[in-house]
Amino acid sequence: MNSINLTTKLGALTLKNPVVTASGTFGFGLEYAQLFDIGMLGGVVVKGLTLNPRPGNPPPRIVETPAGLLNAIGLENPGLESFLRDTLPCLKEYNVPVIVNISGNTIDEYAAMAAGLNESGVQAVEVNISCPNVKQGGMVFGTSPEQAAQVTAAVRANTALPLIVKLSPNVTDIVTIAQGVAAAGADAISLINTLLGMAIDVQRKRPALGNVFGGLSGPAVKPVALRMVWQVSQAVELPIIGMGGIASSQDALEFILAGASAVSVGTGNFINPKLTVEIIEGLAEYCREEGINDISDLIGAAWRRQ
Amino acid sequence: MECNKVEILAVKAVSQHYYLLTLMAPRLARSVRPGQFVQVRVADGLDPLLRRPFSVHDWDAKQGTVALLVQVRGKGSKMLADKRPGERLDVLGPLGRGFEISETKGRALLVGGGIGAAPLWSLARQLKDKTWDLTVLLGASADSLLVKAVDFSHLANTIIATDDGSAGIKGKITKLLPLAASDYNQVYACGPKPMLAALAVWTKAAGFPLQVSLDEVMACGMGVCLGCAQPVKHNKSVNYAKVCTQGPVFDADEVVWNE
Questions:
Q1: Beta strand pairing status for B18-24 and B2-13?
Q2: CB < 8 Å to A47, chain B
Q3: Among A73, B147, B188, B232, which one is least packed by beta carbons within 10 Å?
Q4: CA–CA distance, A123 with A41 (Å, rounded to integer)
């Protein structure tokens, strides 16, 4: 039997398979390395980093909803310098492409972080302009086409690394934002970050999250994410990392067929810590069953067949 | 730490609100320590979505069994209580930092509020094995919410309080503290935060070291999601600690109680 080619390309970055982890759901990779060989993954997107350490939001920070998870972590992280010094050397041992997710309060902070990663040996930068849980920066940049483009351009000017921009779904027209970041120099687009939501604790008669609002993820958001991948992949000539509620290889295939070149597993890691490797196996199995030698033949196949 | 499907050996109702789930989990039984917990996937479906954390109530390393005490509180715990022997359960663990036990024997006070008594049973067994002298205080809002899956009185002087007086002394568990007055080398506690906070005040005044096991909502259980943040004192500043990996057991002096 011929072996299946699972490799996929995100601009200049080639992944050995299309399954990566979603930022904030896989720590810095080392936690899950206790359970399986993370070197099997297409890539690890690390917990979102900021230039300086951030303590995060006050608890309660998470609430479960039907088939979903609301979080208001608030970008708690040790800061870029600590990551580069203390964590990255350990992560490099696992022979897995490392994609660093960055956030900033200002465009200058994004630029400084991009510059700081140039000589670090990471494989790509994912620019987070879509975090709903911080007061400054975050989603503010991701909901304005002009600001999204400005952040992208500033990062582009400061790095030669493959540049992925992670977009917010909390917008009226996702295509316009995607076109803006594509024109500003992005190499790939991540779709989607969490949807802004909330829950109320009826016992305490107040919002369930300390931050009132949070980002909704998990299977509940999958139809929205899939729709956005479908729309953007037809409008923009950039590879897309599709994410939002992927909980099986079937889900991953839907995103690839909708136009994603890679998929990212987020909340699903919490439910099944080995989900990423099961999805890789499931994709290969599907290709075998369908007689497909190269998974890239499936990218966008659903809209090409309309 | 492992993530495996293990066989359910027994599901036994031990009171109106509590079920004892016995699992065949040899590797877990060999490695778990008092105060550690597991994350259990209650159903194969996606609603409820998250795993549920349960402290390990008891285990038998020779038999390879592990017991969880489940309080039926919502959809997930009800689904667990409805499981039947022979079914398999997806269990991640052991997780977290358990109780620290000094090798030098002494006198210990164990304080359990409601289901918080669950992890204290295995702790009591281990302390007894090391010939510690134990006193146990158990409290709940009513008799039906007292943990009776085990009989602490076999191991220790045990005093009970219920809010409604349906068992033991009427009143909060903290009312029992004067009755348990002694010199303790270590106090261990698990239960509602207000109970733990009151206990922290009492132990500090008495000069007893207190270890508390905290209960927080968490998604991953392994230090990734950062959902289970607990403010703790570090040098002169306050940071967030992860209850799942830096706890669930903390020194009471570290914990910021007035949230």
A1: antiparallel
A2: 224
A3: B232
A4: 14
Specify the range with the lowest mean pLDDT, choosing from A91-100, A131-140, A240-249, B66-75. Answer: A131-140
One-letter amino acid of B161: A
Q: Which amino acid does the sequence have at B150?
A: V
The model's pTM is 0.95
Element (H, E) at A32: none
Which residues in chain B are closer than 8 Å to A55, comparing Cβ atoms? Answer: 239-240
Question: What's the mean pLDDT in A216-241?
Answer: 98
CA distance B252 to B188: 10
- Residue for token digits 């897995």? A96
Are the CB atoms for A299 and A262 separated by under 8 Å?
A: no
CA distances from A106 to A153, B12, B237 (A): 13, 57, 26
- Complex-level ipTM: 0.94
Which structure tokens are listed for A165?
């921009």
**B-chain residues near A27 (CB < 8 A):** 222-224
Q: Name the one residue in this structure whose structure tokens are 């939002």.
A: A244
Contact B6, B89 (CB under 8 A): yes
Assess B222–A contact: CB distance below 8 Å, yes or no. yes
Q: Rounded to an integer, what distance in angstroms lies between the CA atom of residue A296 and that of residue A7? A: 8
Give φ, ψ of A110 to 5 degrees.
-60, -45
DSSP string, A173-225: -HHHHHHHHHHTT-SEEEE--PEEEE-EETTTTEESSTTSEEEEESGGGHHHH
Please check whether residue A63 touches B, CB under 8 A.
yes
- Contact assignment for A62 to B225 by CB distance below 8 Å: yes
**Burial (CB count <10 Å: 0-12, 13-18, 19+), residue A301:** middle
Question: Do the Cβ atoms of B177 and B113 come closer than 8 Å?
Answer: no
B178: three-class secondary structure by DSSP: helix
What gap in Å lies between CA B9 and CA A230, rounded to an integer? Answer: 47
Side-chain half-sphere of A95: how many Cα atoms within 13 Å? 4
Helix (H, G, I), strand (E, B) or coil at B226: coil
Q: Cβ–Cβ of A273/B222 closer than 8 Å? A: yes
